Amino acid sequence: MSMDKKPAPVNNIFVKQEIIGRGSFGEVYKGINKVTGEIVAIKVLDLDTDDEDITDVQTEISFLSKCDSPYITRYRGSYLNGTKLWVIIDYASAGSIRNIVILMIIFFIQLE
User: Fold this and answer.
1) Is the pLDDT higher at 27 or at 70?
2) CB 58 within 8 A of CB 49
3) H-type alpha helices, 7-50
4) What are phi and psi of 104, to 5 degrees?
């Protein structure tokens, strides 16, 4: 009898909720880790795409997996689901840096 365990399907670990963003590689969802109850961001990327796009995704995953900073979203793991790659990262409730900068600009314009 084999002692090898197959990894749990990603749908058994995470639940996708509403879409919180779209990008050139796919969509980003707010999600919940069923095991820990943590709120996470789930990037769902279509691997049935150009090799160059896949290389960009690999570069992003490599970068995030090496970062250990409270100022950068933490990489939690990647899961293959058919032709889709689910990349799990910390959920940033304020949104992307771009969104935060836009909100700050609007705020300061209103102060004038």
Assistant:
1) 27
2) no
3) 10-13
4) -65, -40
